[in-house]
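Note to self: keep these together.
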Amino acid sequence: MLAYVIRRLWQMIPTMLGVILLIFFLFNWVGGDPAYILAGKMSSPEQIENIRKQLGTDQPYYIQLWIFIKQILTFDYGASWSTGELVSQILATRLGPSLTLLIPLTILQTLISILLALAVAAIRGSLADRMVMMLCTIGMSISILVYIIVFQYFFSYKLGWFPVQGWSDDFTENLFKYALLPIIIMLVVSISPTLRLYRSFVLDEINQDYIRTARAKGVGERRILGVHVLRNASIPIITDVMSALPALLIGAFLIERFFGIPGIGREIIIAVERSDFPVIKAITVYVAAATMFFNLIADLIYKAVDPRVQLK
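Structure:
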């Protein structure tokens, strides 16, 4: 296994280089000249040229690329073009609120979806199964904006159970006061597609020959679902969960914006509005690296869950 991990880490290097080149050329060729954006409409050519010198965009492309690579290797992306705050400081202060929202959400969403998928699969084809799938379809067809507006109006304005906006320095207060309603909203939104997906994983395993053999041997239905089916259906479930984990680094855009949560998602929206390329580049690189890392972790979990999996 150690040789496999080392080989996968080695393979990440050329992949990461490709990502770096793609990010660099997209931002420098497609993104336009940030000096024009930062200078504003009422600016002279001298002011624009001065801004280019301050940003370093007047340098040849190969020098800018080398500077970008050094920034990645040293984890120092310089300062934000719009606020002057260090990019590393922005990421360090904004990541915590996003993780406060998304880590509990991921855990609750996965556990609830698995339990509901097993329960619905046990009564597959029944009226209750059809009703649950119909409710999931209805839930998926409603925009998250509708959920945000309705939940804020009903639970915050009418009942006064949750604050509409706010954030503090206390983790417990943030989790159980300010983040609770956003977590509930995102959980309601995410349960429907996740439940439908996990139900299909479970049903694929229920129809396998080994399940019929287990029933023929007199194994109880609960043990079949909770042990045999769940263990084999966990492979695609792990894939789904691990592929979603890199999204933790980019936050929840709409939720953070509507609830005034100072997370990564809201920071990305602000950076895009201001063409703050250092912030966007840093987050893009980190998400790409996290995606490759979590794919490696997923492969190792496959082996732990199913010994038949061969790591090659």
